[in-house]
C-alpha cells in the first residue's frame, strides 16, 4: 500500500542531530521542510548542514527549506502546523513541554535524547506517553546505538544461553553489566568542525553527561541484556551510589569550542579562578530486578582515536565484552572468555557453528583465539559511521507513522526506566565529586 509522504516540521533545532536525521533523501518525507526557530547561530548551523546535504556530490538530498523564523516562532508553529510530524533536538530543558504540545496537537514526534534531565520530569514523560497512546500518536526516542553492528551482535550473543548462560546478579564492586563511553568535545561532523552552542555547557539546560550521552548506555543495558523484557522504574530500579568529575576549560579552549570570546554570565557558578570547571563525567551504580549495573559517561576536549564505548556482561558460562583495538586500528572487537577453562573447546565449537549460522545477519565475522579467549571482529563493511545510524532510526519512525503500527509493549515502560536511571543518577552524583571505582 502506497502512503503519501510525511510533511516534516522542525521546532527550534538546537543540536546538529536535527540535521543528521535528514542526512539522506527519503521518498517517505515530503521534500519541503518547515522549520520554526528564532534567528540565530543554531538556525544558521542547521541550514548550513542541510545545504551541504543538498549540494554534495554523492547521494545529494533535495530538501526545500521553508524557514519561518521569528521571535514568536513557537506560537506560530502550533498555530500553523503545516506538517504531521516534527523533529526536536537540543533545548533539552524545554523539549518535553514542546513534545507534549505536539502530541496534544496530533503531531507525531521524533526527538533526540535526552527527553529529561531531572527526576521531576518523569511524571511529565509518563503523562505525555499516556496521551500519545490515547491519540495513537508516534513518539520516538532516537536511540541510534541500537542500530550499531557491535551492539546488535552483543544482543545476539547474550540471548544464546548455550554460549553465555544466564546473566549473573553481580555485586556493587563486580557488576553484572558495565557500560562506559567517552566523547570528544572537539570533533568533525559532516566534514567540518562542530561548534558547540553555549547552552550545551549549562548543566541545567542541556543536562550533565549521564543525562545526555549516558541515555544510550542506560538504553543499551536493557536492550542488549534483557531483550523484550519490561521494567518499571518504581519497583525494579534501585540507585546505589554515583559520582561525577569536572573538566577545566580555559578561555582559549572555550573560544575554540563555542566561537564565543568570553564565558557567559549564566555559567558564573561554574567558574573558579577565571576557569570554567564543567561537570564532564558522571557514573552510577544501580540494580535492575536485582542485577548490578554500572554506567559511566563523559566528555574530554580531545580524543585522538575518536569517541569510544566499552561494555562487559557476566554470564554463568562466559564473560562477554566490547573493547576497542589500540591505535592505529581502534576498531571494536567483541571478546568472549569462558568462565571454566575446561569448557574452552566446547565453547570454541559452539562459536564456530554460531558464526556460520549468523552469516546472513553478520557477514564476514572473523574469529581469533588470543590469550585463552575468543575475539570476534566485525567486517569493516558492517561498521556503519555514527552519522548514518540516524537515517535508520528515521526510517523506522516513518514506517510506524505511515502504518500506524504501535511500538512494542515494553518500549515505553523501559523508556521511563532509562530516564529514571540517568536523572536519578545525576541527582545522586551531585553529592559526590569522585571518579568511578575501578
From TrEMBL:
Domain Putative oxidoreductase C-terminal: 155-427
Protein's name in the database: Putative oxidoreductase C-terminal domain-containing protein
